[in-house]
TrEMBL record:
It comes from Hirsutella rhossiliensis. It holds the Pfam family GST_C. The lineage of its organism: Eukaryota, Fungi, Dikarya, Ascomycota, Pezizomycotina. This is Glutathione S-transferase II. Residues 10-98 form the GST N-terminal domain. SUPFAM superfamilies: GST C-terminal domain-like, Thioredoxin-like. Belongs to the GST superfamily. Residues 105-232 form the GST C-terminal domain. It comes from the Eukaryota.
Length: 264
């Protein structure tokens, strides 16, 4: 895969992304819109490990230097960045039948906004910090590990309670699949990186399987390349040993600081 140096499309949606929980928000919705309406898009892989997202051509599209970002060549080259904003824009402009969203005068529109904001401002940053201090930080800091893993667990407890008698996060009756679900999918699927098992939250686990059965979700998780991480997979060999080692460190940190799971 050659290193991107600029935009390559001249029409339709151009997606600039990488295989991360935030990146999957855009790719999953675009795949759903392709199935529902025939919407086509072009994807470019932005390797964040090589800091492609920090290059001037990319920061001209997203000044924050983060993925995902989209450019709508059919709307005067409008650039949209931040996953929540991309979900909102794509459904407002292209989900004309509200198959994955709600009409603005529907109270579920506001409920969906609330859950997307909850994910954007709570679950994602807390789980992201848990991932960092458990996996990436060179120094294993017990307080930081138990703090962020614990907060991640608390937030998943809230989501589990929400889904206890529902199939999807928002919508009448047992709910229906919308961008309120799509916003969460990548993060839930990456939960094992924190050493927390999704099986700890049975309603969330069932919801993830339900969503993962959708062909567009499966394709979206493969953009720009298939993901090797999934909460529905079981680690084997060296990966399993590493996960167990990290979980032991997290459990020791919880014990050291007297952590007790509570939610909310």
């Amino acid at each position: 895969m050659s290193r991107p140096t600029g935009l390559v499309a001249s029409k339709g949606i151009e997606l600039l992304t990488w295989g991360t929980p935030n990146g999957f928000k855009a790719s999953i919705l675009l795949e759903e819109l392709k199935d529902a309406y025939g919407l086509q898009y072009t994807a470019q892989a932005i390797n964040i490990g090589q800091n492609v997202q920090k290059e001037p051509w990319f920061t001209a599209i997203n000044p924050n230097g983060r993925i995902p970002a989209i450019v709508d060549h059919d709307n005067a080259g409008l650039a949209v960045f931040e996953g929540a904003a991309i979900l909102s824009y794509l459904t407002r402009r292209y989900d004309r039948d509200h198959r994955f969203s709600f009409a603005p005068d529907d109270d579920d529109y506001t409920r969906a906004e609330s859950w997307i904001a909850w994910q954007h401002g709570g679950l994602a940053p807390m789980q992201g910090q848990a991932n960092h201090f458990v996996r990436a930080a060179k120094e294993k800091i017990p307080y930081a590990m138990q703090r962020y893993v614990g907060e991640t667990e608390r937030l998943y407890g809230i989501l589990d309670a929400r889904l206890a008698d529902r199939d999807y996060v928002v919508g009448p009756g047992r709910g229906r699949y919308t961008i309120a679900d799509i916003a969460l999918l990548g993060w839930v699927d990456f939960l094992p990186l924190t050493t927390v098992s999704v099986a700890q939250f049975p309603a969330v686990h069932a919801w993830l399987r339900r969503c993962r059965d959708r062909p567009a979700v499966q394709r979206g998780f493969a953009v720009p390349s298939p993901s090797s991480i999934s909460a529905l997979k079981t680690d084997e060999g060296e990966a399993a040993a590493k996960s167990q080692e990290l979980k032991k460190l997290v459990d020791q940190a919880k014990e050291q600081y007297g952590y007790k799971y509570t939610s909310p």
